[in-house]
Structures are given as structure tokens and as C-alpha cells.
Amino acid sequence: MRLTDAAAQRISELTQRADSEIVGLRVGVKNGGCAGQSYTVEYAHEIRPTDEVVEDKGVKILVDPKAVLFLLGTEMDYKADKMQAQFVFNNPNQISACGCGESVELRPAKIDG
Q1: Which residues are in the Core domain (predicted)?
Q2: How far is residue 88's CA from residue 38's CA, in Å, rounded to a whole number?
């Protein structure tokens, strides 16, 4: 996983403004939504032994171990406009997305070797 400058800046802002100590953001994938899966983003107060730690542009992303194969090669961006502000995932493992943009269909990344 890698971050755009906008995503790194937003993560930095969020961790500095949090009410308690935050080590980074935890990113994962959960089942649900009309396309089958959705991305999750939450504050991480600690690094779990099973987390995949990604440090990019001065911030940490902790990838849930169940999501690693679904997020390989993904770029995390942050977009803000007049109507909404959100993290956006540019994921080569995404097969499709629902019309509302809230859920996606993902396939595990193929590992050569």
C-alpha cells in the first residue's frame, strides 16, 4: 500500500487532533454492501502483532492481516469537495463497485512465486 500526499497529510492531521494517542490508521476490508465488501478505516491506538505496518510519507497505516491480499498494490488517496470528504482507494484488485460507491467487489492479489 502507498499513500498520496493528500492522504498522508490528512492522516497526520487526524492523528494530531485525536483525543487520545493514535499510532496511525488501521485499514481493512469487511463483508457487506450491495457489491459484497467495503473498506474500513479506523484509529489505531496500538500496533497488533499481526498488523502489516506500512510507513509512507511520515505516517503509519496498519493493514488488517485478513485484508492484506485484497489491498496489495493499492494507493490510498484523500479527496474533498463541496459535498464530501473521504479516503479513496485506487485498488488494482477491485473487480467492480456499486453505484453509490459505498461497496466494492475485490479479488485477492495473485502472488507470483
Answers
A1: 2-102
A2: 11
Question: Could you give the angle at the alpha carbon of 45 between the alpha carbons of 13 and 27, nearest 5°?
Answer: 70
Model confidence pTM above 0.85 = no
The predicted structure's pLDDT at residue 109: 83
45-103 pLDDT, tens per residue? Answer: 999 999 999 999 999 999 999 999 999 999 999 999 888 899 999 999 888 887 666 77
Three-state secondary structure call for residue 68: helix
Say which amino acid occupies 102. Answer: E
Sheet holding 37-44, edge to edge: 52-56, 59-63, 24-31, 37-44, 104-106, 94-97
**In what helix (H) or strand (E) does residue 12 lie, and over which residues does it extend?**
helix 5-17
What distance lies between CA 104 and its chain's CA centroid?
13
* β-bridge partners, 49: none
Class of domain 2-106: mainly beta
Query: What ranges do the domains of the chain cover?
Result: 2-106
